[in-house]
Amino acid sequence: MTMKERIWPADIEIGDIRIRLANPETDAPALYSPSHGADSDALIWRWMHWGPFPDIDTFQAWMQRAVDDPTGVVLTVELSHDGAFQPVGQLRIMEISEGDRRCELGTIWYIPDVQGQGISRRVTGTMLTHIFESLQFRRAEWKCHHMNVRSAAAAKSYGFTYEGTFRQHMVVKGQNRDTVWFSMLDTEWPDIKNRIYSL
Question: Distance (Å, rounded) from C-alpha 115 to C-alpha 183?
Answer without folding.
Answer: 23
